[in-house]
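Ops channel
N.P.: pipeline sanity check, posting one input/output pair.
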């Protein structure tokens, strides 16, 4: 089905009740924090804010890359804010989060891609909210294995790096990234754990559907992820953030997500979330605990 102004029934949802949304937005503004919920125009923002959760976006609100699916602005980023880790931890404390998800923009301008800053966020969260689990979603650090090691050594509870799409579409969807490079990030996490004898750390990845991929291509990607040791998988519908972004090639029916989720479980993923509105951090706590969600 080609993109049209009318979304299919399964992509229409009621407005979220206000809940704690006003308090969450107020706190984020007070602490000068960015979220992927707002910057990436996530369709689940209202639901998550209303329930008192948010996914923090660190290292600024501007990305050095221009992925054609992503609403985060591409421009020269500001210098790193060294006080940001403390503010993220303070927000997590005041929001009483039991699972904190931290993602970041890509910072190819930094020597380590920002790995040390992400590690500082994890370490500050550990000191401030020791009872909470921490999940990171990082860039590929331009292929720097040493940068992946820096984040792994900070000991997050989940390490997420998204493949986003199938290899055939990378040049169009992620022109500055590489499929094998992203697989290498996930494999490197497991290798670093083996080298250091650190506690087991689940790895996680996500794929968008509706960009023109075939089911067989998605199955092949899932197989590649398992080869790289990936444990947790998210599958969601790509939705075009603006006319400047790639168009939706197909609105994928919920039953297709269900079938792919069954295939993923058969491949050995310990947690699978697959449905049109699923995003990398959506109900991340449930997936981290080994459950399956939608």
């Amino acid at each position: 089905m080609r993109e049209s102004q009318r979304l299919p029934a399964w992509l229409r949802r009621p407005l979220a009740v206000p809940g704690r949304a006003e308090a969450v937005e107020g706190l984020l503004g007070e602490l000068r924090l960015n979220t992927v919920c707002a910057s990436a125009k996530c369709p689940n923002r209202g639901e998550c804010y209303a329930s008192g959760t948010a996914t923090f976006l660190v290292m600024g609100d501007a990305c050095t890359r221009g992925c054609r699916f992503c609403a985060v602005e591409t421009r020269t980023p500001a210098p790193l804010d060294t006080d940001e880790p403390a503010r993220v931890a303070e927000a997590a404390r005041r929001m009483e989060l039991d699972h904190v998800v931290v993602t970041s923009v890509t910072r190819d301008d930094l020597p380590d891609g920002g790995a040390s800053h992400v590690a500082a966020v994890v370490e500050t969260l550990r000191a401030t909210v020791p009872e909470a689990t921490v999940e990171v979603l990082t860039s590929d650090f331009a292929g720097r294995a040493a940068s992946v090691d820096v984040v792994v050594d900070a000991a997050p509870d989940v390490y997420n790096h998204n493949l986003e799409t199938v290899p055939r579409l990378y040049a169009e969807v992620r022109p500055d990234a590489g499929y094998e490079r992203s697989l290498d990030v996930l494999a490197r996490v497991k290798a670093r754990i083996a080298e250091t004898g650190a506690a087991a750390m689940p790895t996680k990845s996500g794929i968008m559907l509706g960009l023109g991929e075939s089911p067989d291509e998605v199955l092949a990607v899932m197989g590649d992820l398992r080869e790289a040791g990936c444990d947790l998988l998210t599958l969601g519908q790509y939705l075009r953030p603006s006319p400047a972004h790639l168009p939706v090639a197909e609105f994928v029916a919920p039953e297709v997500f269900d079938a792919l989720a069954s295939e993923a479980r058969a491949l050995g993923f310990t947690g699978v979330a697959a449905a049109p509105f699923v995003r990398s951090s959506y109900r991340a706590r449930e997936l981290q605990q080994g459950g399956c969600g939608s």
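N.P.: looks fine end to end. Strands lie at 34-35, 56-58, 62-63, 73-74, 99-104, 133-137, 158-160, 203-209, 232-237, 271-274.
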